[in-house]
Write a structure and sequence with these properties.
The protein is of the alpha/beta class and about 200 residues long. About 35% of the residues lie in helices and about 15% in strands. The chain is built from eight helices and seven strands. β3 (about 95-100), α4 (about 105-115) and β4 (about 115-120) form a beta-alpha-beta unit.
């Protein structure tokens, strides 16, 4: 994972509520155990016609969506199953953050473990973002804040350990492996105490 300290991007607005993980990445694409390539199947049933042609009216297929790394979604984003492929597809596509008023708990946990920042904001901020697609916003993990183009800033919740991992580009395993020397020293001390 790449470290994330600050994200500055135009937003893509997906004006739908209760988007579940099967809509994010349909089940037929879950045959892979790697993250690479899943971005092409992100929102596949909404993005593509039955013949595989992109639907011009879907938000990700519009020219203004190109290069955006922040997705603003309706309420209750990521509900449904616990598939980790959902945040994999979002990050492989290029998103680094999802903003909503509510993000499903299991999806949120999976997002944090996979380098996708789940940003939960109040109704007023969310409403403004929904009405202003393409607005350039800044997400700062140091201050756990989202700043709108006019300079208004709102805080969002983020657990300290998840924040540390995101800012340092490590997952939970990477965090533990980075403490290998300390873990080994602890185990040696415990073994020595047990033998006394």
């Amino acid at each position: 994972m790449d470290p994330i300290k600050t994200l500055r991007s135009r937003t893509v607005v997906l004006a739908m509520s209760d988007v579940d993980t099967d809509q994010i990445i349909p089940a037929r694409f879950l045959t892979t155990t790697t993250r690479s390539g899943l971005g092409a199947s992100l929102f596949a049933d909404w993005r593509y016609a039955s013949d595989g042609a992109p639907k011009a009216d879907f938000v990700l297929n519009r020219p203004e969506a190109k290069g955006c790394t922040i997705l603003v979604a309706g309420d209750n984003f990521g509900c449904g199953s616990s598939r980790e492929h959902a945040p994999w597809a979002l990050t492989d596509y290029g998103f680094r953050a999802v903003v909503s008023t509510q993000i499903a708990d299991i999806f949120r946990a999976n997002a944090l473990k996979n380098g996708l920042v789940p940003v939960i904001v109040d109704q007023g901020t969310h409403g403004w973002l929904m009405e202003h697609p393409g607005a350039e916003v800044t997400i700062d993990l140091e201050s756990t804040s989202l700043t709108l183009p006019g300079g208004q800033s709102v805080q969002f919740p983020l657990e300290p350990f998840a924040r540390y991992c995101l800012m340092n580009g490590v997952d939970e395993l990477g965090f533990l492996l980075g403490r290998e020397t300390e873990i080994r020293a602890y185990e040696q001390r415990r073994a020595a105490q047990a033998s006394e």
